[in-house]
C-alpha cells in the first residue's frame, strides 16, 4: 500500500529524512513516532505529494508519487484522507459543508453528497452538529469533523499528523478509538505522533523516526 | 450542479470579502476603459464619416478639347461598359461654363476676358459600391488616365488622403492607448484578486490537500475577475454614453457644428456587448496573472 525506498530530504542542508526505507501493508494501523522535527510530517507530506524527496522513491496505492505530474496529484489526494493537528476547518462553512468539500471538488451529485456526509458525520459521532460552524464546537468535536472530512471519500489510506496534539487524554483516547474503527473497516491508517500515551493506546506497529532516520521497529500485536 | 453552485457562490463570496477594494477596482477599471472608449468612439465615427465620403465620391474625367464627338461617344461607351462604373454623366464645355458662372458669379468676367471657353468637357463618374475604397478609386483613375481622349482624372484625392491619414493616426493612437490602458486594467484587477487570494490562502491550501484540481481552485477567482472586468466595461460604456449625449446636446443648443449632430453615432449594440466581453476577458487575464504568481509563490 505504502512503500518508501531509500528516501532522503534536506531543508537548507539539514537532513529531514535520511535514507528511509519502509513498507506499510494494506489494512495496517501504523504509528509514526518521533520527537518534534524528527521528520514525521515531512514523511506524511511526501505520501500526498506535498513534498518531493531529494533522493529515493515513494509509492502509494501502486502509484509512484515521486514521478506523478503536478496535475495528477489531486487525484492521488482523493484516495488519501488527511487529518491535521490544527483541524484546518473552514470557519465560515458549516460542519456539513466542511465535510462535503472533498466530494464537491470531485463533482459528486448533491444526493450522494448528502448521503455520504451524513454517514461520515454519524461514523464520528457529530451528526447532530451538521448545521453549526466549527468555531462553536469543542476541540474534540472539531477533530471529529476533520476526521469525517478525511473519510467521507472512503479513502484507501488515512494519514493523521499529530491528531491528538491539541486534545486532553480523554479526548485522545476517543480519537484513537475512532481511528481503530476506521482501520477495522479496511482503511490503512498512519498516525504520526510524539505522544507516548498514544502508543500505549494503539498497541500496533510502531515506526520511530529520530533526526530523519528510522530506528528499529517495535511491534505490539493488537 | 452542486459543484457549479459552489463555484458561483465562492466567486460571489470573494467579491463580498473585499467590498471596498472590489468597488474601487470596478470604478478604476471603468475610468481606464472609458479613456480607451473615447478614442474608440472617435475612431468609429471618423470611419463612418470616411465611409459616407467614399459613398459620395465623384470622379471627374476631363476630356481633351480637340476630341471629336465620335471619339467622345466611343470613350463614353468604354466607360459605360466598365464593370466598376455605376453611373456616368456628361458635362459639356458650355454646361461647365454655366455651372462656373452659377457658383462664382463675381468671377465670371475673368473667363469672358479670355474670349473663348477654357473649361473642358467632362464625364462625372460614380463608381459601384465595391470600387469606392481609396485604393480602388486610385487604381481606376490611373487606368482611365491612360485612355485616349482623357486629359485628366480628378477626385478629391488630397482631402480623402488627409482624412485617411487622420483615421490611421487615430487608429494607431487608439491601439497604443488601448494596449497601455488595458494592461493597466489587467494590473488593477490582478491586484484586487491578489488581495482575495491572500485573504483566502488557508482555504486554498485546504482545497489542495483534499484533492481539488488547479482548475477547481481557480474558477471562482477567474469568475471574480470576469465580473470585475465586465462591470468595469459596462460602467465605462454608461459613462461614455452619458458624455456622448451631453456632447450632442451641447452641439444642438450652442449651434456649433449642429449639422454634424445627426451624423454622430454611439457604439452599436453588438459592439457594446463585444466591449463588455473584452472587459470580462481582461478581468480573467488579471485573475490569471495573480493566480499564476500565487501558485509560483506556493511552489
Automatic annotation (TrEMBL), chain A:
Quaternary context: Homodimer. Forms a membrane-associated complex with FtsX.
Highest taxon listed in the record's lineage: Bacteria
InterPro entries linked to this entry: AAA+_ATPase, ABC_transporter-like_ATP-bd, ABC_transpr_LolD-like, Cell_div_FtsE, P-loop_NTPase
Pfam families: ABC_tran
Family: Belongs to the ABC transporter superfamily.
Compartments in which it is found: Cell membrane
Gene (UniProt): ftsE
Protein name per UniProt: Cell division ATP-binding protein FtsE
PANTHER family: CELL DIVISION ATP-BINDING PROTEIN FTSE (PTHR24220:SF470), IMPORT ATP-BINDING PROTEIN (PTHR24220)
Amino acid at each position: 500500500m505504502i512503500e518508501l525506498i531509500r528516501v532522503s530530504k534536506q531543508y537548507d542542508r539539514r537532513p529531514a529524512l535520511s535514507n528511509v526505507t519502509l513498507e506499510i501493508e494494506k489494512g495496517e494501523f501504523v504509528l509514526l513516532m518521533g520527537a518534534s522535527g524528527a521528520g514525521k510530517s515531512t514523511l506524511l507530506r511526501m505520501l500526498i505529494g506535498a513534498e518531493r524527496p531529494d533522493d529515493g522513491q515513494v509509492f502509494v496505492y501502486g502509484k509512484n508519487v515521486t514521478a506523478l505530474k503536478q496535475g495528477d496529484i489531486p487525484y492521488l489526494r482523493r484516495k488519501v484522507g488527511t487529518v491535521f493537528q490544527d483541524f484546518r476547518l473552514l470557519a465560515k462553512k458549516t460542519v456539513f459543508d466542511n465535510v462535503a468539500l472533498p466530494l464537491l471538488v470531485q463533482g459528486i451529485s448533491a444526493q450522494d453528497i448528502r448521503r455520504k456526509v451524513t454517514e461520515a458525520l454519524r461514523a464520528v459521532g457529530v451528526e447532530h452538529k451538521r448545521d453549526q460552524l466549527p468555531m462553536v464546537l469543542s476541540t474534540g468535536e472539531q477533530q471529529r469533523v476533520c476526521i469525517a472530512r478525511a473519510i467521507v471519500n472512503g479513502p484507501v489510506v488515512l494519514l493523521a499528523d499529530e491528531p491528538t496534539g491539541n486534545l486532553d487524554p480523554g479526548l485522545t483516547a476517543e480519537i484513537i478509538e475512532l481511528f481503530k474503527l476506521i482501520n477495522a473497516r479496511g482503511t490503512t491508517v498512519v498516525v504520526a505522533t510524539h505522544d507516548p500515551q498514544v502508543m500505549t493506546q494503539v498497541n500496533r506497529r510502531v515506526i520511530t523516526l529520530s533526526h530523519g532516520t528510522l530506528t528499529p521497529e517495535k511491534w505490539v500485536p493488537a | 450542479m452542486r459543484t457549479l453552485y459552489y463555484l458561483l457562490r465562492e466567486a460571489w463570496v470573494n467579491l463580498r470579502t473585499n467590498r471596498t477594494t472590489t468597488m474601487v477596482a470596478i470604478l478604476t477599471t471603468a475610468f481606464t476603459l472609458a479613456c480607451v472608449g473615447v478614442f474608440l468612439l472617435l475612431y468609429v465615427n471618423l470611419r463612418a464619416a470616411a465611409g459616407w465620403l467614399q459613398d459620395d465620391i465623384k470622379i471627374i474625367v476631363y476630356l481633351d478639347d480637340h476630341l471629336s464627338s465620335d471619339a467622345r461617344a466611343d470613350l463614353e461607351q468604354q466607360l459605360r461598359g466598365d464593370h466598376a462604373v455605376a453611373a456616368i454623366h456628361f458635362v459639356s464645355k458650355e454646361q461647365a461654363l454655366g455651372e462656373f458662372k452659377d457658383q462664382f458669379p463675381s468671377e465670371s468676367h475673368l473667363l469672358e476676358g479670355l474670349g473663348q471657353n477654357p473649361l473642358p468637357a467632362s464625364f462625372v463618374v460614380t463608381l459601384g459600391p465595391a470600387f469606392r475604397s481609396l485604393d480602388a478609386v486610385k487604381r481606376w483613375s490611373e487606368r482611365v488616365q491612360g485612355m485616349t481622349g482623357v486629359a485628366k482624372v480628378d477626385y478629391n484625392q488630397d482631402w480623402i488622403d488627409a482624412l485617411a491619414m487622420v483615421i490611421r493616426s487615430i487608429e494607431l493612437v487608439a491601439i497604443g492607448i488601448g494596449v497601455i490602458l488595458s494592461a493597466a486594467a489587467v494590473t488593477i484587477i490582478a491586484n484586487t484578486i491578489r488581495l482575495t487570494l491572500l485573504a483566502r490562502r488557508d482555504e486554498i491550501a485546504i482545497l489542495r490537500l483534499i484533492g481539488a484540481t488547479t482548475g477547481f481552485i481557480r474558477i471562482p477567482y477567474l469568475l471574480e475577475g470576469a465580473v470585475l472586468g465586465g462591470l468595469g466595461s459596462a460602467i465605462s460604456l454608461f459613462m461614455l454614453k452619458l458624455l456622448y449625449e451631453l456632447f450632442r446636446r451641447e452641439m444642438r443648443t450652442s449651434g456649433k457644428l449642429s449639422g454634424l449632430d445627426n451624423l454622430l453615432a454611439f457604439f452599436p449594440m453588438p459592439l457594446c456587448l463585444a466591449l463588455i466581453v473584452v472587459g470580462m476577458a481582461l478581468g480573467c487575464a488579471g485573475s490569471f496573472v495573480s493566480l499564476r504568481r500565487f501558485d509560483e509563490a506556493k511552489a
